[in-house]
Specification:
Length: about 325
């Protein structure tokens, strides 16, 4: 192996740049050439490649987004598109690649490995929804950004004795909602994986106001419902004032937290080591605080396991 490629795919996440930097620096340390593939799998097919030096990745660890750009590219599921990508890689003497992205990206990484290009997947998504890992690159930063925003929302909520229903990201996974809800002392956390009783939520908010609390916060994962619709429903059962707020894509931006920088660096470093060992078709994760690998194929039969026990802790906190 002489030259490796690195790409970011799917929704961007803070810490992706830190991972690209770690891959680049580690590869150079081992005497390998490094190529950045721009626009994810789409750039792989069109040969949108840029050589990366150690200097190119200096001062990138602190930057949000991905300087290699990202794209969602469902066309990569087609065999002829994959073969075109392999031809581009071979033409450019790229022997193996590291893919940083969400679960969609793992299908691409596995396909490439099967076509003879060893590929390693790193979990890069704010959603924290990937199997066999308790952590994904960007999750901590997104939670921190959402927490900071909700702290501000609470200031105005308190001043007016209002309830705020706040949408956080997470279409199918409630991990952002759970962690942010716990961190902001939410009165209720609503996630796509669990059913909810809106009457009960209204009851909790009313009880808390009656007990002297001057604000109410409901953290609602976007996959459940739009905050505005939830507010309309909620007001049928509560006599309080309420507003809706959607945090949206601001959660995907900004400088990565220390947790994301350090984990992205460890994962990028580890991924290069795996390629040097001749491995491919593997997904890197963090389990019980340690870096682990699993066959990408196994990920397709497994679900991400969220820590729902945090919801029970929050329940007790709201009493
Ligand atoms: O990257 C994950 C995510 O941010 C989800 O939380 C969200 O539902 C989705 O991406 C938004 O996607 P898009 O970038 O297409 O708006």
């Amino acid at each position: 192996m002489k030259r490796i490629g690195v790409l970011t795919s799917g929704g961007d996440a803070p810490g992706m740049n830190a991972a690209i930097r770690a891959v680049t620096k580690t590869a150079i340390h081992h005497g390998l050439g490094v190529v950045g593939i721009r626009y994810g799998f789409a750039g792989l097919v069109t040969g949108d490649f840029v050589p990366l030096t150690a200097e190119d990745v200096d001062h990138k660890i602190n930057l949000g987004g991905t300087f290699l750009y990202s794209a969602r590219y469902p066309e990569f599921a087609q065999k002829e598109v994959q073969e075109k990508a392999v031809a581009e890689l071979k033409k450019n003497d790229i022997d193996a690649i590291i893919v940083i992205g969400g679960d969609g990206s793992y299908h691409g990484a596995l396909a490439l490995t099967r076509l003879g290009i060893n590929s390693i997947g790193l979990p890069g998504t704010i959603d924290n929804d990937i199997p066999y890992t308790e952590y994904t690159i960007g999750y901590d930063s997104a939670c921190t950004t959402a927490m900071d925003a909700i702290d501000r929302i609470r200031d105005t909520a308190s001043s007016h004795h209002r309830v705020f229903v706040v949408n956080v990201m997470g279409r199918e996974c409630g991990d952002i909602a759970i962690r942010v809800g716990l961190a902001t002392g939410a009165d209720a956390i609503v996630i796509p994986e669990h059913s909810y009783d809106i009457k009960e939520i209204a009851k909790t908010l009313k009880r808390n106001f009656a007990n002297g609390k001057d604000n109410g916060i409901v953290i609602l994962a976007e996959g459940v419902m739009d905050a505005a619709d939830f507010r309309t429903e909620l007001l049928k059962y509560g006599d309080f004032d309420a507003r809706a707020n959607v945090l949206g894509h601001m959660q995907r931006g900004g400088s990565p937290t220390v947790v994301d920088r350090v984990n992205a660096t460890k994962m990028g470093h580890y991924a290069v080591d795996l390629l040097l060992d001749g491995k491919g078709g593997l997904a890197v994760g963090v389990e019980n605080g340690k870096l682990t690998t699993h066959d990408i194929l196994d990920l397709f039969d497994e679900k991400h396991h969220s820590d729902f026990s945090l919801l029970d802790i929050n329940e007790e906190m709201t009493k």
